[in-house]
Design a protein that fits this description.
This is Porphobilinogen deaminase. Monomer. Its EC number is 2.5.1.61. The chain has a five-stranded mixed sheet, sandwiched between helices. Helices cover about 30% and strands about 25% of the residues. It has three domains: about 120 residues, 3-Layer(aba) Sandwich (D-Maltodextrin-Binding Protein, domain 2), CATH 3.40.190.10; about 80 residues, 3-Layer(aba) Sandwich (D-Maltodextrin-Binding Protein, domain 2); about 90 residues, 2-Layer Sandwich (Double Stranded RNA Binding Domain). With about 325 residues, the chain is of the alpha/beta class. The structure holds ligand PBG. The site of the ligand NCc1[nH]cc(CCC(=O)O)c1CC(=O)O has 9 residues, from β8 and α6.
Length: about 325
C-alpha cells in the first residue's frame, strides 16, 4: 500500500516571478499544515505568451483559465491565483478552498529620486495601464492643483520599474502586495493612502483553488483560510459583480475592519468603500458603508450589493465607459 502522506501535492503555477513567489509561499504553508510535500508544476499560460492581446483573448480571467483546465484534467492538484485576477463568478466544479491572510492591499508608487505622489511635478508622466488607477490618480492630482500624464504601460514588474530607472517615466504604480512578495518593497517611494486611491477589489489577497470533487483536499487547504479576509474580498467582489464591471473597469473597492470609535476594544465593524470614476478623474463617485463584521457569506454579499446599488443610484453606470447598464 502506498503511503498517501509522502505523495507530493502538485501545485500548478504560472511561470512569472510573481506567480512563482506566490505559489512558493502557499506551497510552504500547505507543507506545514498537511505534512505532505508540495511540488510546483510551472505551466505556460496563453496570457503570459501574448499579454498584448489580453482584450482579444477574453480579458477577465485569462491568466486563470489554463490553470483551471489543468486542475480539472487532473494534471495538477491545486492552484494559487491573485484574487483580483479571478472572475467574480466561481465555477461550480472548482472550490475556492482558502483565502489566506491578505498582504498590504494598497497601491504603491515607485518614483524617481524617491518622490512621493504629492511631490511629483506638474506634468509628471506616471505609468499605469489600469483605468482604475488612472482615474483616481488624475482626480488626486487635480485636488493638488496639478496635472499628471498617465501613460499606459504593460509587462511584468521588472519591465514596469525599468521605465522609471531608464528615465522614460517619472513614476509607475503597482500593487504593494506584489512588490512585497517579490522582495522589492524597499523600492516603493510612496504607499498610496486608501483615502486617495482605493485598490482593485481583492487586491493583495490570494485565492487557493482545487477541484470541488476532492473533499479531503478542500478540507486540508481550508486550514489556510482567513475568515476576515474572505469576508472582505467577498464584499469587494460582489460590489464589482453588481456593477457588472470586469477587472479592467475603473472600479476600486476596499473592505477593512473598523473599530467602533466609542469602544475600540471591539473590532466588530466592516467598512466597505467603493469608487467609480472617469479615466480623466474629472468625475468620481465614492461611497462608504459600515456594518457588523459579516457572520456569513450571505452577509458579506449583502454589504457589497448594498454599496453597488448606492453607487448605481449616484450614476456609476454612466462613468464606466462604453458599458451600457
Ligand atoms: N493585474 C496584475 C496583477 N495581479 C495581481 C497583482 C499584484 C498582487 C496582488 O494584487 O495581489 C498584479 C500586479 C499589479 O497590479 O501591480
Amino acid at each position: 500500500m502506498t503511503d498517501q502522506s509522502t505523495v507530493p501535492l502538485r501545485l500548478g503555477t504560472r511561470r512569472s516571478k510573481l506567480a512563482m513567489a506566490q505559489s512558493g509561499l502557499v506551497a510552504r504553508a500547505v507543507e506545514r499544515i498537511t505534512g505532505r510535500p508540495v511540488e510546483l508544476v510551472a505551466l505556460t499560460t496563453h496570457g503570459d505568451v501574448s499579454r498584448e492581446h489580453l482584450a482579444s483573448i477574453g480579458g477577465t480571467g485569462v491568466f486563470v483559465t489554463e490553470l483551471r483546465d489543468a486542475m480539472l484534467a487532473g494534471e495538477v492538484d491545486f492552484a494559487v491565483h491573485s484574487l483580483k485576477d479571478l472572475p467574480t463568478q466561481q465555477p461550480a466544479d472548482l472550490a475556492l478552498a482558502a483565502v489566506p491572510v491578505r498582504e498590504d492591499p494598497r497601491d504603491a508608487l515607485i518614483a524617481r529620486d524617491g518622490l512621493t505622489f504629492e511631490q511629483l511635478p506638474d506634468g509628471a508622466r506616471v505609468g499605469t495601464g489600469s483605468p482604475r488607477r488612472a482615474s483616481q490618480l488624475n482626480a488626486w492630482a487635480r485636488s493638488l492643483g496639478k496635472r499628471i500624464e498617465t501613460v499606459p504601460i504593460r509587462g511584468n514588474v521588472d519591465t514596469r520599474i525599468g521605465f522609471v530607472r531608464d528615465g522614460e517615466l517619472d513614476a509607475v504604480v503597482l500593487a504593494a502586495a506584489g512588490l512585497n512578495r517579490l522582495g522589492r518593497g524597499a523600492e516603493i517611494t510612496d504607499l498610496l493612502a486608501t483615502d486617495a486611491v482605493l485598490p482593485a477589489p481583492g487586491q493583495g489577497a490570494l485565492a487557493v483553488e482545487c477541484p470541488a470533487s476532492r473533499a479531503d483536499l478542500v478540507a486540508a487547504l481550508a486550514e489556510l483560510d482567513d475568515p476576515h479576509t474572505r469576508a472582505a474580498v467577498t464584499a469587494e467582489r460582489t460590489l464589482l459583480a453588481e456593477l457588472e464591471a470586469g477587472c479592467s473597469a475603473p472600479v476600486g473597492a476596499l473592505a477593512d475592519l473598523h473599530a467602533d470609535a466609542d469602544d475600540p476594544a471591539t473590532v466588530t465593524e466592516l467598512r466597505l468603500r467603493g469608487v467609480v470614476g472617469t479615466t480623466d478623474g474629472a468625475t468620481l463617485v465614492q461611497l462608504s458603508t459600515t456594518g457588523p463584521v459579516p457572520a456569513s457569506h450571505d452577509d458579506a454579499v449583502a454589504l457589497g450589493r448594498e454599496l453597488a446599488r448606492e453607487l448605481l443610484a449616484k450614476g456609476a453606470a454612466g462613468l464606466m465607459g462604453e458599458r451600457e447598464l
